[in-house]
Amino acid sequence: MARHGISGASVGGVTSIDSGIDTVVVGGGIAGASIAYELAASRSVLLVETETALARHSTARSAATYVPGHGAAPLRALVTASGPRFARIKAELDAPPLLAPRAVLHVAFDADGEAELAADVAEQAGEPGAPVAIDPAEAQRLCPALRPGTVRAAAVVEGAADLDAEALHQAYIRGLLRRGGSVRTGAPVTGVRRSGSGWQVQVGLDEKVVGAAEVVDAAGAWADAVAVRAGVPRIGLTPYRRTIALARVPDPSRLRGPDGTRLPMVIGVPEDFYFKQEGAGLLVSPADETPVHPHDVRPDELDVAMALERVEEVTGLGLRSVHTAWAGLRSFVPDRLPVVGAWPEHPGFWFCAGQGGSGIETSPALAAFAAAVVTGDPIPADIPLEREALAPTRL
């Protein structure tokens, strides 16, 4: 994914920053960009990012798929609410189409996987966009790349789609600037301290101090580190490495679905691999979750080899090598739900973190939810969650 190349000098003329900002949002990925845009509707917002370009970490390294029925019930509610919001974002922010329909197949290859898939389908029965059980022959028809006779059980999500994460992120930044917000890149937060009823945030290599009424910590895998600098308790985030590679396919003609359509995305049950057609190649992942400290993570050769092996086992496509490989960070708290809110003892320091692997597909609804939590406004009617559902006090 191309980098955005937005710098403090080129965005909104931000070469120095005045005090009196209502809200400083820390983190220039999809979480920070989306909530900054929402908050800028009613307050002055400064978005700060450590890197010299925005969205260089998890946002730029995601498989970027919108999958209804993905995750626990609160996450599924956010995914469902985000669907119509993508269309509104496209219209409001002059974005290209953000969703490109592509079905997702959940496929089980043994008895344990079959039981887990049946339980998931039963739990989500009646929900919008829920996976629908299909027989193995239909799964084989939808994805001829699967090795014949290997599928034991399957379910399809017809309402899934590829998601243009870069276009979405750029739209949010464009909307933030239109609403009078500011962006500063190459601006690590080196200190945060309480100042009266507000906060003083020390940013950038010049250690400029910005006065703000509130701080939103949307720093992804680094969210706990930002909290520590502010003297605020951690929420207990653990970053996990996730590896993706673009594999070479010796016979690309096998990557054709019914009537010449592109293949659906295929996710193993339990989730120990996934693959998705990308042109004449195949995006593959071992769905690894290796706990790491927050850093600019790189792929591990063994994980790349594991991805090739697992996908080759169920396809027989002759996967032996890759064009490229990369890794990103997925951050979770113990219950694997996002954290949105503040500790009662530290009002005005708001978390918007812990989105795990659902940060992009839930961003429209999660940003609107988080903005309502920060401002005290009612939660939007299309988001069926109480504000306490994602609060840090649940941890």
Automatic annotation (TrEMBL):
<dbReference type="GO" id="GO:0016491">
    <property type="term" value="F:oxidoreductase activity"/>
</dbReference>
<keyword id="KW-0560">Oxidoreductase</keyword>
<dbReference type="Pfam" id="PF01266">
    <property type="entry name" value="DAO"/>
</dbReference>
<dbReference type="InterPro" id="IPR036188">
    <property type="entry name" value="FAD/NAD-bd_sf"/>
</dbReference>
<dbReference type="GO" id="GO:0005737">
    <property type="term" value="C:cytoplasm"/>
</dbReference>
<protein>
    <submittedName>
        <fullName>D-arginine dehydrogenase</fullName>
    </submittedName>
</protein>
<feature type="domain" description="FAD dependent oxidoreductase">
    <location>
        <begin position="22"/>
        <end position="371"/>
    </location>
</feature>
<dbReference type="InterPro" id="IPR006076">
    <property type="entry name" value="FAD-dep_OxRdtase"/>
</dbReference>
